[in-house]
Design brief:
Helix content: 25-40%
Structural class: alpha/beta
Number of helices: 17
CATH class of the largest domain: Alpha Beta
Order of helices and strands: HHEHEHEHHEEEHEHHEHEHEEHHEHHHEH
Radius of gyration: 21 Å
Largest sheet: 11 strands, mixed
CATH architecture of the largest domain: 3-Layer(aba) Sandwich
Distance between the termini: 24 Å
Length: about 375
Amino acid sequence: MRVSTVIDRLSSGRQVSRRDVMQAMAALGIGVSVVPVAGRSAQAGDVVTYFTWSGYEVPELHPGFVEKYGDGHVAGTFFGGEEEALSKMRTGFEVDVSHPCSYSIPRWIDGGVIGPIDVDRLSNWPDLFPRLRDIPDTIRDGQHYMVPFDWGSSSVLYRTDLVDPKYAEDPTWAIFYDDAYAGRMAMYDTSVIVDLAMMVSGYTNYTSYTDEQLAEVRPLMEKGNSLLRFYWTDASEVTQALASGEIVAAYAWNGMTKELVDQGIPIAYMNPKEGQLTWVCGLAIDPRGEADEQMIYDFIDAMISPEAGVFQIEDYAYGHSNMKAFEMVPEETLVAMGMSDPNAVFEQGIFIPAVPPELEEKMIKIADEVKAGF
């Protein structure tokens, strides 16, 4: 949520959640440490430093840890993107637990900022979805380097009253190249524009694009770039623009639908024929951290508990790694989220893979060149 939005809500007397305030502070570059307010005081090595996306340090997401240690033993510090986080950690910023996504794990391992995890020390590990536990990118030499925590999908979020019904009948990422919506669409500000153009062009070799393929689809990327209203990094910017009708479609995460549905905005989350993108993020341990090792494992175990999962699902509208959490959430809630059958979602989605560094550099370079013409 943007800082201006939080200020507007406060001034009008409207409710502002703790998560909204945290996100606004993060946007200003203000890190937040959770200081002791109850229980024993925190000493050196007695606090788990958690490097995460804003909003994920709240005690509701690690209730078992708070119950065991009391308040004030988690210090949350935030990043806006994984490249930023990796760069900061490689230059000496040390934490205890970080929150990367599966496709980033190989680079984080090679960067020396995360180490192997003894999953046998996690009581909730057996209750995690096997499909999430066994993502190849998160395992090296038989050892796990990430404990899956949250997951969701990326697709097209669009206004059903402002977009041609044909996209409900024939859903496709190709909407981003439709001249009918010039200046009324938004795209995530990453190199994902390369993947989308590849998918629409029929290419599925996500980790081995050739130079010839990249050259072939570049004109499609450039066309899509010319039709955008804006690139986004702040999810609230997208939901506000869709609510007002400034834009009619956007690349979005599934959790972004909740606020619009709650407002009664006619919205739909597309299941493109080319496939939705599935992302999985999780918890990793920095071997350079200073917190007590048992506290670190207790913190991670609490994050993947079913109780934390219920809060994650109901409050943030994203999936959780613990299967039992889904059994504790009302069926109507899961249906509204499109997650009544998580395993079916996994089967239908395209798990975002780790890309070889050389190819990733090419994709970023091409995307930056295309976006420079925006």
